[in-house]
Amino acid sequence: MRLLVTGASGFLGQHIVPHLQARGFECVVTGRDGKKLATHFPNCEIVSYEEIEQLQNIAAAIHLAVLNNDRASDAEEFHAANVDFLLQVAIDCRTAGVPLFVNMTTSHAEDSKNLSLYAVSKRRGEKALSELHGITTVNMRLPAVHSSNFRGKLSLLNRFPGPLRQLSLMGLSLLRPVVHVDRVTDAVMATITTGQAPVTMISDGQHENYIYRTAKRLIDVTAAVSLLAFLSWVFIVIYVLLKFKGEGSPIFAQIRVGQHGENFICRKFRTMKVDTADVATHEVRGSSVTQVGKFLRRTKLDELPQLWNILKGEMSFVGPRPCLPGQTELVTRRHELSVYTVTPGLTGWAQIRDIDMSEPERLARADAEYVARRSLLLDIKILLKTFLGHGQGDRTST
Questions:
Q1: Which of 204, 233, 267 is the last residue of a domain?
Q2: Which of 112, 151, 158, 354 matches a 20 to 30 Å C-alpha distance to 254?
Q3: What CATH code is carried by the domain that includes residue 53?
Q4: Among 6, 109, 24, 19, which residue's Cα sits nearest to residue 60?
Q5: Can you give the pLDDT at residue 367?
């Protein structure tokens, strides 16, 4: 299978091309400096940008050419490189009959409040590419990329000895995601196979970052204990009120799917009538919610018993919302997207964006996006947005 890699002489290209070749791909490379390309890739076919239209039998194009944020350029130069040139290369690939165009873009583009010339140009490039017809286009966002050495803002880590360098990388990724070139290559291969990126942003995640895991667990336990102590009187009031109403046990226990796909007992204050079917909330009629339950759900006070689940390590404050085992479409999709590698949460990335379990495919992809984007800063952002009223939980049917 032949692949076209543009801007191949850069940091990312120098790492990705050999990885792709090692996995059986034939790479055609292009860039501004032919001599540099010949030095780095002696076994690759080298073409100019003007020759792209004449290429044949290219299965996909991987666009790495970019004017990066480490260059002192003006708005016109950024736009010319990251919008106009991007679009022209994609059009040339379409003319050559290339079916798939993968644009390596940046995590800076996802923040609409980031008004740097680089971020703005990359957002505009993504939009222009998404509106191009006649070729399948994929925007794959990357955070800071690293390998055995570092570049850009991470280059300071090159001064540290091996063990300290890795520890420092964990500390930095505690706040913002990073990605190893091997994961980028894996994502490219998955995209070529399926025609779409596994998730919008590719990162290392936090699975091997014990600093993040320790910090998050410490925050969860400390906050849960504090809330249990501070809100104990609220627990008592709600419990007595529900008991007085006589609409079943005040604490409602339900089996949910947790980390690694293992079931656990999730506890909430009862908000629905006793005879309500044990199904997903969006399948329950609104008339099944009690008057007290409407208030508890609106204020999210029905979630308070889940502080016990957090103390037990079955849940976290932030993570994908746990679903029922019977929601097979959502469970299956979450397994496919490795969502179950993380602990479920009281609130999550999908919830503050008003995506609930009535849209299993969309929800699973949003959960996978959270897994890729995880950091303490993002967790804090999700908690603040939840506190400010973003996301009202799963809706009942009408």
A1: 204
A2: 354
A3: 3.40.50.720
A4: 6
A5: 94
Asked whether 252 and 289 are in contact (CB, 8 A), the reply is: no
Asked whether residue 197 is assigned to any structural domain, the reply reads yes
Q: Can you give the pLDDT at residue 53?
A: 94
Mean pLDDT of the chain: 87
Q: By C-alpha distance, which of 206, 218, 159, 160 is closest to 372?
A: 206
Both 303 and 335 in one domain: the answer is yes
**Strands 263-269 and 251-257, how do they pair?**
antiparallel
Tell whether the model's pLDDT for residue 288 goes beyond 70: no
Supply the pLDDT for residue 305: 92
Asked if residue 394 is part of any domain, the answer here is: no
pLDDT at res. 397:
47
| Under 8 Å between Cβ of 59 and 1 | yes
More confident residue, 379 or 273: 379
Per-residue model confidence as pLDDT tens digits over 151-196: 666 777 767 777 787 788 788 888 888 888 888 988 888 888 887 7
Looking at the structure, do residues 197 and 217 belong to the same domain, yes or no? no
**By percentage, how much of the chain surpasses pLDDT 70?**
90
Total domain count for the chain? 2
- Domain extent for 255: 211-387
7 domain-assigned: yes
Q: pLDDT-derived band of residue 271, with 50, 70 and 90 as boundaries?
A: confident
Same domain, 229 and 332: yes
**173 and 224 co-located in one domain:** no
CB atoms within 10 A of CB 59: 14
Closest CA to 370 of 337, 393, 397: 337
